[in-house]
Design a protein that fits this description.
Keywords: Iron, Metal-binding. By secondary structure, this protein is α+β, with helices and mostly antiparallel strands. About 25% of the residues lie in helices and about 30% in strands. It has a single domain, classed as NE0471 N-terminal domain-like (2-Layer Sandwich), CATH 3.30.2020.30. The longest helix is centred in the first third of the chain and has 6 residues. The protein binds zinc ion (ZN) (2 copies). The site of one zinc ion has 7 residues, from helix 2.
Length: about 120
């Protein structure tokens, strides 16, 4: 049996005050994800494009508050989560790996120098 041993989220919290998602992981990490950053990273075909065609996000300069308000998170198999946004968008599958790579906590930001 192949063991998929990437840490998995055990619970989540919607921090409405700071508009961020806090995920608790099986390895005890707590990851932080600003809702707006999360929405901009939506990997679905509609947002990110497909087959060489640009997606919705590439044509936009900004997103509305509805589009960047997270209302729920749904599990996708045992490998990912789908955020449910206030505007009804819910087709983006964020794998655990992607979410961990996107973590905005101080510790992770120090580890992965961006830009
Ligand atoms: Zn999307
Ligand atoms: Zn982190």
């Amino acid at each position: 049996m192949t063991q998929y041993d990437h840490p998995s989220p055990t619970s989540f919290l919607l921090d409405e005050e700071n508009r961020q998602l806090i995920l608790s992981w099986s390895d005890e990490h707590e990851s932080i994800h600003g809702w707006e950053n999360l929405r901009w990273a939506c990997p679905c075909a509609h947002c990110a494009g497909e087959g060489g065609l640009p997606g919705m996000l590439q044509k936009r300069q900004s997103l509305s508050e509805e589009e960047t308000t997270l209302v729920n998170l749904e599990p996708v198999g045992r490998y990912g989560l789908t955020p449910v946004w206030e505007d009804g968008h819910r087709t983006g599958i964020y794998t655990y790996e992607k979410l961990r790579a996107m973590c905005e906590c101080d510790e992770c930001r120090r580890k992965v120098p961006k830009r």
